[in-house]
């Protein structure tokens, strides 16, 4: 069994250089991969899922910044 690091909203926001409110908005509009719900008020992301999402977005961000 592998140990999976679970990230809080603040952890994800810090990695992305945005505010936690932005991450919450991204959850609502489907921009970011959905978190795992622990209970109605608590959710976390698997670190690998977020890292893969960040890596997949690098080309998109680079293209957006050139326009």
Q: Can you put this structure into words, describing what you see?
A:
By secondary structure, the protein is of the alpha+beta class. It has one domain: Multidrug-efflux Transporter Regulator, Chain: A, Domain 2 (Orthogonal Bundle), CATH 1.10.1660.10. Helix content is 55%, strand content 16%. The chain is built from three helices and three strands. The chain has helices spanning 9-16, 20-29, 47-65, and strands spanning 6-7, 36-39, 42-46. It has a three-stranded antiparallel beta sheet. A hairpin with a 2-residue loop joins strand 2 (36-39) and strand 3. The longest helix is centred in the C-terminal third of the chain and has 19 residues, at 47-65. The chain is globular and about 35 Å long. The termini are far apart.
Explain the layout of strands and helices.
Blueprint: E1 6-7, H1 9-16, H2 20-29, E2 36-39, E3 42-46, H3 47-65
Antiparallel strand pairs: 1-3, 2-3
Helix pairs in contact: 1-2
Structure described in brief:
By secondary structure, the protein is of the alpha+beta class.
